[in-house]
Write a structure and sequence with these properties.
The chain is an alpha+beta fold. About 25% of the residues lie in helices and about 40% in strands.
Amino acid sequence: MKSNILLIFMFAVLLLCCCGEHSHDNDHADESEHKEETGHGHDHAGEISFTKEQAKAAGLAIETVTPSTFHSVIRTSGQIVAPQGDEQTVVATASGILTYYRGSIAEGMAVKAGEAIASVSAKHLQDGDPAVNARAAFETAEREYQRASRLVADKIISAKEYEQAKLNYETARNAYHAQAASMTTRGISVSSGMSGYVKQLLVAQGEYVTVGQPIAVVTRDRRLQLKAFVPESEYGSLRTISSANFISPSDRNVLHSLASLNGRLVSYGRSLSDNGAFVPAVFEFDNVGDILPGSYVEVFLIGAARNNTITVPLSAITEEQGLYFVYVQEHDEDYVKRQVTLGDSDGLRRVVISGLKPGEKVVAKGAYNVKLASMSTEIPHGHSH
């Protein structure tokens, strides 16, 4: 009897131990599943991990959102032109074949005031060399005038005939002296009237030119003008315009600010342009040497000031399928992507209408690197066993 009771007792103890181990195993399994579902209880949805070392290597720059003054902007197009007086057209002073003194002369080449850039010669043409003809005409008129002076004294010819001989002489003399000063063995030289750069060559080497025909344009390029094409609908805002920024298609990474180029508003039109599409607004500024006259540019006209405006640098903004985002730093190494609604841009910064609050920290430089990091975290990871 005692042995049976002992066996029952041992069986009960063994059963209790097995049930306890099974309960503990279930507890561990439930806890493990809970950690997998919650990401160990530490991760936050949408957070992007970007270490300080990564941020330093990527050149990340953080900016605290602070409302400030921002000027209204009219965004339009324009053209860079040379001011009147800063350009001069060089014309042919004789008819004949044009020969440039520098066989390799090209647009952009520097020239000095009074420097001969070409010669015109008609030596081998049917009508002969104008310079030789002018000298012959002058010498003939001079002899006729001297003869007329003697004859009129003896009253052999009338005073009227004498005056005509005198007029012919003076005309031939002036024509000859005008060419004699620029006469060379190559023909009549053609000089630049100002120092500057050859902006445009209008005649090719070896072409025939006539007296007064333009052959080249020389420009100083010390000051340039920005001619902005303002839509008619913005005419009422022109009185508030004080300055402008512009971007050249040749280098869209560089924004030129007239405020830093000693620029000023010269005038704006009081009527529509010839094609009736816009009102011109003209600015003048110093040429820093890398702005090409004649080029068309993107223009940001700077107008009235607006206070307490939230803006971010253009480098802080990324775009995805027509939506705009910035990256907000929540902790030292944690960032979140934030959708924003944008307003005007002055070419450097852009107004944020909604999506940011004062005091928040945004990635001002290096946003693309954070975007790449966010894309890598979205890739699902497999499980290893």
